[in-house]
Amino acid sequence: MKTKKKLHYAWVILIGVALMVGLTKAGLSTIGGLFLTPITTDLGIGMGSLTLYFSIASIVTMFFLPLAGKIIAKYNVRVVLVVAMLLQAGGFAAFGLMNSVWGWYIFCIPMSIGSVFLTQIAGPVLLNNWFKKHNGLALGIMVATGGIIGSILQPAAGNLIADAGWRNTYFILAGGVAAIVIPIILLTIRFAPKDKGLQPLGAEEVTDAQGNSEPQVISGVSFAKAKKSTAFIALFLFFFIITSIASFSQHLAPFAMTNDYSIKFAGTALGIMQLGIVVGALSFGILADKIGARNTAIFAMILGVVPIIIFLLVPQSPAMFIVGVTIFGFITSSLGTLGPLLTSSLFGMKDYAQIYSLAAIGLAVAGILALPAYGFMFQLTGSYNSVLFVVLALLVINIFLIIWAFVGKKKLLAQGAWEEVAVTTEAPKEAAVAAEPKNA
User: Fold this and answer.
1) Which of 34, 192, 267, 277 is spaced 20 to 30 Å from 352 by Cα?
2) CA of residue 181 relative to chain centroid, distance
3) Which residues contact 208 (CB under 8 A, 6 or more apart)?
4) Is Ion transport a UniProt keyword of this protein (predicted)?
């Protein structure tokens, strides 16, 4: 008699991870742009000076990214993520008490430490642990969930700032996100399938007459070889540039207001942009599974030219502005979807967490430079046009970097750098620990 197949716990992990990453990213990390104009107007701080806190946050992120991958693998993942949530929400709430720009410079530090774990490392690492099949779709769903959440929170935050003030909005968002995310972490998150006595979704397990498991093969390039390759350099630069492009989203609200739109319209526009993220995340995940990460990434960069042209030519048309931010959201989603997929496509899964963590330093470096640079460019010129031309150039450069990365992969394959490691649930402890560090 055929027994009914149970829902694999990987899907529970996906729901938990998607909600955790979506709420912390859309509710705390990427919503800061809405506060920039109200704060600079209220406190008399220059746009460039205030956006320097993004730079400090990125420096902190850069230092913690290599540590985060190791910490999340070594210690109880739920404890790590709950502590991270308290740091991120606490730092964000503290902004509401500040009267000097130094407050943002100081409290962005704990906020950024928590954000590294919750918005950048946990999602890709956990999903790659649990999904050997439908990995691209899982990452797409994760990013899309963030877009759906953002489409609700961005307009809500814009209205809250207009009606209750920016200080109270900081408190409300921090408290609300923490109150939802902490129970989600405790109830759903587990580091690896072995913690539930399971195989990853899609892992083929064949048993012989004695009931012994056929080993699962994990293949890829070792961390030591990957970090010295031209493919890694290209990937690092891709991360840097795609983050620099996506960073303009933090300036979209001030950009809207320079074109005589209200804070409420800016919040609505950014909410609609999040819907673009939903479509983009799902589309890129599915496309990557069908035509590969390389072709999908090139398509994304070409499409990214469209909103920049709209912002340069017809920024004062409300309808075209909405079209522009929607497509820009579509491109922004590629950061969360294509970054992890390009990493696994180029280097495999053997040392994925270490390689991704190191390459993701490019995300932080971009934040150090791009966000305040855009702010100072506006502060000096009174216009965002020069910023838009820079973003346009970056989109073109990224196309060449993607091509260069896969040329570098061919060299690694020719050098025999691609290796295979066999592990099973009952494998020798040394091999099992090397592949999936113990974590409850």
Assistant:
1) 277
2) 17
3) 214
4) no
Q: Which two tokens stand for residue 222?
A: 């070792």
Per-residue pLDDT of the chain (440 residues; tens, 9 = 90+): 444 567 778 888 888 999 999 899 888 887 888 888 889 888 888 877 888 888 888 788 878 877 887 888 788 888 999 999 999 999 999 999 999 889 999 999 999 999 999 988 888 888 888 787 777 778 778 877 877 888 888 888 888 998 889 999 999 999 999 999 999 999 888 877 776 667 767 665 434 444 455 556 677 888 888 888 899 999 999 988 988 888 888 788 888 888 888 888 888 888 888 788 777 777 877 788 788 888 988 998 999 999 999 999 998 898 999 999 888 888 877 766 788 888 888 888 788 878 887 887 777 677 778 878 888 888 888 888 999 999 999 999 999 999 999 999 888 888 887 877 665 544 333 333 333 333 33
CA-closest candidate to residue 116, choices 79, 71, 146, 52:
71
Specify the length of the chain in residues.
440
For the chain, the structural domain boundaries read 9-202+213-435
Contact predicate 332/249, CB 8 Å: yes
Name the nearest CA neighbour of 118 among 35, 23, 207: 23
Which residues have a Cβ under 8 Å from the Cβ of 225 and sit 6 or more positions away? 412, 417
Reduced to 3 states (helix: H, G, I; strand: E, B; else coil), residue 105 is: helix
Taking CA atoms, 260 is separated from 163, 263, 264, 328, 378, in Å, by 19, 10, 12, 20, 16
CATH 1.20.1250.20 fits 9-202+213-435, yes or no: yes
- Exposure string over 399-431, b if 16+ CB within 10 A, otherwise e: bebbebbbebbeebeeeebbeebebbbebeeee
Burial of 330 (0-12, 13-18, 19+ CB in 10 A): buried
Q: Which helix (H) or strand (E) holds 221?
A: strand 216-221
Q: Tell me how far apart the alpha carbons of residues 288 and 312 are, in angstroms, rounded to a whole number.
A: 30
Q: Which of 350-381 are b and which e, b meaning 16 or more Cβ less than 10 Å from the residue's Cβ?
A: bbbbbbbbbbbbbbbbbbbebbbbbbbbbbee
To 5 degrees, how large is the angle CA 419–CA 420–CA 426?
150
The SS3 assignment for 204 reads coil
